[in-house]
Amino acid sequence: MKMKHSAYIELNEELVKRYYEDRDYKQYKGYRLLAIDGSRIQLPNRESVIEEFGLAENGGKTIPMAMSSMAYDVLNRITVNTYFESYKTDERTLADRHLDKIRELTPGLKDIILMDRGYPSLYLFVRMQRLGYDFIVRCNDTSFIKEVTEFAQSDETDKILEINLITAQRRNHPPLKKLEERPARLILRVVKIKLAGGTTEYIISSLTDKTTFTKDTLKELYHLRWGEETYINFQKNVLEVENFSGKTPETIRQDYFAKILSGNIGSLMIEEAQNQIDEQARKNDRLKYDDYKINRSVATGLLKDEIIEMLLSPQNHWEVRYNKLVETIKRFTIPIIPNRHFDRKPKLINKYFLKKRKII
Fold this sequence. Notes:
Elements: H1 5-19, E1 32-42, H2 47-53, E2 55-58, E3 61-73, E4 78-86, H3 91-105, E5 111-115, H4 122-130, E6 134-139, H5 146-152, E7 158-164, H6 168-171, H7 174-177, E8 185-194, E9 200-205, H8 215-223, H9 226-239, H10 249-283, E10 292-294, H11 296-312, H12 315-329, E11 333-335, H13 355-359
Parallel strand pairs: 1-5, 5-6
Antiparallel strand pairs: 1-3, 2-3, 3-4, 6-9, 7-8, 8-9, 10-11
């Protein structure tokens, strides 16, 4: 039995609200880190699907495609909000919708929004500041605004810019004209980041305190955005969001939003299993390695179909199935081998992990 796609959206929104209620989630200096990004989703080739979502050109061919946009908590691996729209929907338009929905679902939280170079927009910067967001956004040196171009051509590497929003050109800029009571100026910080290959990238931020948020800190926080890129790849190759059980627009939406919900519940279950593994490892001196982690790909592959079945099962059955699934994924661990040459995130032990079960 399947539910309407709107039911999966509502269930995920309720999960998100309850997850952040207790404030016992991973944060950076009191901030939640949310990456916003879009991706294209290939769809079945059916006339009704094409009419609903549109076609994209690929290698001289046209393929039915949708635009997916996601606001993703990179530290806690939770999809806070997602949209699934026609292929031609603009990513910045969806980002604007995310800003309102995030505040609706989780009011009062301190957020840093992370965005790639497709998103720089004076309109979005004003909107984010008005809604109380801070942000770190990558931009091009020449194709955004003249103030950034002038900075790129200078010897400076970290500068506070005062952007005039009421010049003749900007006064008539269509996105800015949508703003009610447009501010006269916008204060932004722009930094140059030298990459290992010798190229330079430019980051714009609202975080103007250079002591708390150094240039290196902005670089590190921006690169955490790759957690969302990794998760998008994870969605396509493990959750299989492009593998649809039907070929109608409604069935496609059902499958998509069911997998978003499944991915979030899977993250909570893996978090619970990981905390149990960590506790067992601390008490067992005979283990070959000090630390072990759940193999997320294997665990999610096992969980992706079971979770929805669990949710549709009678109330007195689902918790038994939940416990069995947690025990199952605990079997699929891999050792964390010391002195491997890759970054390890600091282990944050969540003593309240059992509360997460109550969210579901």
